[in-house]
Amino acid sequence: MALSTRRGALTTLGAALAGAVVLPGAQAWAGSPHRGRRPLWNAHAHNDYEQHRPLSDALGHRFGSVEADIFLVGDQLLIGHDASELDPARTLESLYLDPLAALVRANGDSVYRGWRRPLQLLVDIKTEGSSTYRELDRHLRRFPHLFTRYDHGRIHPGPVTAVISGDRAARAPMQAQAERLAFYDGRLADLGGAAPASFISLISDNWTQVFTWSGDGAFPDAERRKLRGITAAAHAHGQRVRFWATPDAAGPARDALWTELLAAGVDYLNTDDLAGLQAFLDAHPTA
């Protein structure tokens, strides 16, 4: 991307955030519409790139986690849900890495000014995992101060924590690295110490493959115990928990399920409805 184009993209993204300030000369975006309000660390923007304004909408709603699907095309990492919708202008750098780097520079080494907890960037690999991860690793290393880093057994927190999901073939090259800028998204089969949290930092799975309840009626006691057992086991190993394919249509069923997820200690609530989840979490400030 040409420098003028990149600067223009950063300026546009910054202006989209209410209350943002474009820094003269640097053409970065700073300020924060969240000033004085806590980030919603439980909120995960599923398929964030399909929002009207990728990343900026999620940050405007104070989300703690965003998801980007990537395809390896040549040496470029293109963003999209299906190969048919890929656009050479929509790269991981242009939509996420460059804007995040600019924001962190402007906000004193944090995504949310005054909050040191990292934003989670969940990168879902859609092409062959091993080759895509190796290229992704090269891209991440262009931003060495942006990401939480694993280095020979030690973790050095950064403003953004990259977690790799999608094609499972990414696991082997990641696990072989003594130093990396990303962590792995495990499945329930990985629960219980199959790998340390310094490698598998997140446990994710399909809600509908694990539970029958969809928010209507009472939550079966056995399923509630199962859910709480999952979160307890993950947290005992320093891992966080997320479920996808949870009900996402506004209504009592979704609210009931989200309430149970929070009560069980699930770390990330998955949604495409950013405003809906923001309103729900703002109404549950003790969660």
Automatic annotation (TrEMBL):
<dbReference type="InterPro" id="IPR039559">
    <property type="entry name" value="AIM6_PI-PLC-like_dom"/>
</dbReference>
<dbReference type="InterPro" id="IPR006311">
    <property type="entry name" value="TAT_signal"/>
</dbReference>
<dbReference type="InterPro" id="IPR017946">
    <property type="entry name" value="PLC-like_Pdiesterase_TIM-brl"/>
</dbReference>
<dbReference type="Pfam" id="PF13653">
    <property type="entry name" value="GDPD_2"/>
</dbReference>
<dbReference type="InterPro" id="IPR051236">
    <property type="entry name" value="HAT_RTT109-like"/>
</dbReference>
<protein>
    <recommendedName>
        <fullName>Altered inheritance of mitochondria protein 6</fullName>
    </recommendedName>
</protein>
<dbReference type="GO" id="GO:0008081">
    <property type="term" value="F:phosphoric diester hydrolase activity"/>
</dbReference>
<dbReference type="GO" id="GO:0006629">
    <property type="term" value="P:lipid metabolic process"/>
</dbReference>
